[in-house]
Write a structure and sequence with these properties.
Helix content: 25-40%
Number of helices: 2
Strand content: 25-35%
Structural class: alpha+beta
Shape: flat
Oligomer: single chain
Length: about 110
């Protein structure tokens, strides 16, 4: 999803993915986010992420630890809704892992909106 000046107000949840931030001055930074919310207003855009790591600092060990924790959460879930939520998050992390492994430098922007 691309957000530009005067964008219509929008609020959405975010799945794990990569957010590319471009400032008005042209600087660009990429972050791996682990779920959260996106709030878009005509003059601003706010991402409230569960966690965010600069893409350049992301490593396989950190992501593998998050995947293992998600597996444990899915296994320990006691009711159907919790299990579905945990399994969905696990699937999103595994997809993110594949995306990052394919080629970090080619990622432009991945906002998976639900």
């Amino acid at each position: 999803m691309t957000v530009m000046a005067n964008h219509a107000p929008t609020m959405s949840t975010l799945q794990p993915g990569v957010a590319v931030v471009k400032t008005a001055a042209g600087a660009q930074e990429s972050y791996v986010i682990f779920g959260g919310f996106l709030d878009v207003m005509p003059t601003s855009c706010t991402i409230l992420a569960e966690a965010a790591v600069p893409l350049s600092a992301m490593n396989a060990t950190d992501l593998n630890e998050r995947i293992e924790a998600a597996k444990t959460s899915a296994h320990m879930a006691v009711d159907g809704e919790s299990k579905v939520r945990a399994e969905t998050y696990l699937a999103q992390l595994v997809t993110l892992q594949g995306t990052l492994a394919s080629d970090k430098t080619m990622i432009k922007a991945i906002f998976m909106l639900i």
